[in-house]
């Protein structure tokens, strides 16, 4: 651990970040234009270890400056790793500055998306204000419609429930009434049948007694001669 810190300190003294405002990728990497890709890659690892925003070697610098330096190192590495970086750099087009500008634009887009600005942001004049007001009015209209629908459902739901419950109770009462009537009819019909059977039994008994009395009269002596 101590050896690693000493190496970082030595590397920090060996590869300081350039102080002039527009350093080239080779100046940031402290390499000559004839450096190989292996040297560029190794130097990039050294610079990342020394100039990363979380590195203890650059804690004396403000967070914004640390972030800017690290972006420049990454952009310089991307420019040096490109096969045409040397030719483009020698021409009027600076790939390092283009890469840095591209990264800054991407960062700005991400910040804008995170901030979630409304679509009407940046519009000026009465036309933009009218467009924004129209959007706000449409939003309010949608909210009012949703509130009205919810209120309607909440108001009608109890009535529908009670109506359905009333219909079910009516059917239950009708079924119970029909069942009670059927039971009464069964009792009355059974009682009538029992009365009819009793009458037939009594009639049969009466006929049997009368027949027996006739036989007795006919069997007595002298009844036939008289």
TrEMBL record:
Protein name listed in UniProt: DnaJ-domain-containing protein
Any matching Pfam family: DnaJ
Tagged with keyword Iron-sulfur: no
Region entry Disordered, spans: 206-226
TM region positions: 143-162
Gene Ontology biological process terms from the UniProt entry: protein refolding
Organism encoding this protein: Obba rivulosa
GO cellular component: cytoplasm
């Amino acid at each position: 651990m101590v050896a690693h810190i000493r190496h970082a300190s030595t590397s920090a003294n060996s590869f300081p970040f350039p102080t002039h405002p527009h350093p080239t990728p080779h100046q940031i990497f402290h390499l000559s234009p004839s450096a190989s890709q292996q040297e560029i890659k190794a130097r990039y690892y050294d610079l990342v270890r020394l100039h990363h925003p979380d590195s203890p070697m650059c804690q004396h610098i403000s967070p914004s400056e640390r972030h800017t330096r690290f972006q420049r190192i990454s952009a310089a590495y991307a420019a040096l790793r490109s096969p045409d970086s040397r030719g483009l750099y020698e021409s009027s087009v600076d790939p390092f500055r283009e890469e840095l500008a591209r990264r800054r634009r991407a960062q700005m887009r991400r910040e804008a998306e995170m901030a979630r600005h409304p679509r009407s942001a940046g519009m000026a004049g009465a036309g933009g204000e009218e467009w924004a007001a129209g959007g706000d009015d449409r939003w309010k209209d949608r909210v009012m419609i949703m509130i009205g629908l919810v209120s309607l459902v909440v108001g009608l739901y109890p009535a529908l429930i009670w109506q359905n419950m009333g219909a079910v109770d009516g059917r239950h009462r009708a079924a119970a009434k029909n069942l009670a009537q059927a039971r009464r009819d069964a009792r009355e019909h059974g009682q009538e049948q029992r009365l009819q059977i009793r009458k037939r039994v009594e009639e049969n008994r009466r006929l049997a007694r009368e027949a027996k009395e006739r036989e007795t009269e006919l069997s007595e002596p002298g009844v036939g001669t008289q």
